[in-house]
Amino acid sequence: MVVRTPARRRSSIRGSSVLLHAVMAVAGIVMVLFLLAHMYGNLKVFSGAAAFDDYAAHLRTLGEPILPHGGALWILRIVLLASVLVHVVAAFMLWHRMRAATTGRGGRRYATKKSPRGVQRTYASFTMRWGGLVIGLFVIYHLLHLTVNVIAPGGASDSPYQRMVGGFSIWWVTLSYLIALLALGLHLRHGVWSAFASLGANTGVRRRRHLNQLAYLITTVIILGFLLPPLAIQFGMVT
Ligand code: HEM
Question: Which residue has the CA at smallest separation from atom 43 of ligand 1?
């Protein structure tokens, strides 16, 4: 008869927190790759209306005739949605385990002299959980605004370029994107570092320094790239 000790249970695949962290990291990296491509694509707005709308149309004809119209875009959407779900479910399971292991005290369980309140800083847990929620709400708002065009503050249009320029000409639309990008920046800064650490890259002081530099670099490129179109439109440089 096989005796299941607690240690044995923890090391089973479903029960492994290490595996959950790794799965979460891989899903996060898929989303970071999407963000890099999306940010780069948005910069086409600086090439004018025709170039931007052409680019949006090409996204739908990608892979034809092997794939049907919009097929590649739907594959991307499914991969993205799966990554978001895996990332969120793994995060929730890890949070639940941490709460259970610390009898509800969570991230405040370590005493420290660094914080005036005498407990471990909750910066990372705060930005990751609440920041993640803000990003999730933003993505829903963003899809309703620029993809489905249900919310059309700058006027509904068939042209993705016009939707973008119309929207970001309004100060509060631009401001709402700036707030979301701040949350995304904080989430990415910690998340990129944490993802590579979860995959075993944090193996010494030098590596840790490089991982931190990489996290700052990726975050800066993504956030600056995303900031450029709304700010350029808001300040009348793109019309
Ligand atoms: C200021 C920054 C951003 C701008 C200007 C922007 C612009 C756009 C535009 C124009 C579309 C519609 C593309 C089309 O239908 O042809 C779109 C779609 C989308 N954006 Fe953004 N975006 C920004 C930031 C973000 C961020 C930060 C995320 C994720 C956290 C994101 C996620 C998405 C997703 C998931 C889609 C839907 C893709 C699809 O299924 O068609 N975007 N974005």
Answer: 146
> Residues 132-143: pLDDT tens digits?
999 999 999 999
Token pair listed for 231:
């700010």
Q: Which atom of ligand 1 is nearest to the CA of 180?
A: 27
Domain 17-106+121-234: which topology? 3 helical TM bundles of succinate and fumarate reductases (1.20.1300)
Query: Which atom of ligand 1 is the closest one to the Cα of 76?
Result: 40
Cα–Cα distance measured from residue 173 to residue 156, given in angstroms and rounded to the nearest whole number = 14
Q: How many CB atoms lie within 10 A of CB 187?
A: 20
Listed by start position, the domains of the chain span: 17-106+121-234
Residue of 38, 45, 76 to mutate, ligand 1, most atoms within 8 A of C-beta: 38
- Model pTM score: 0.87
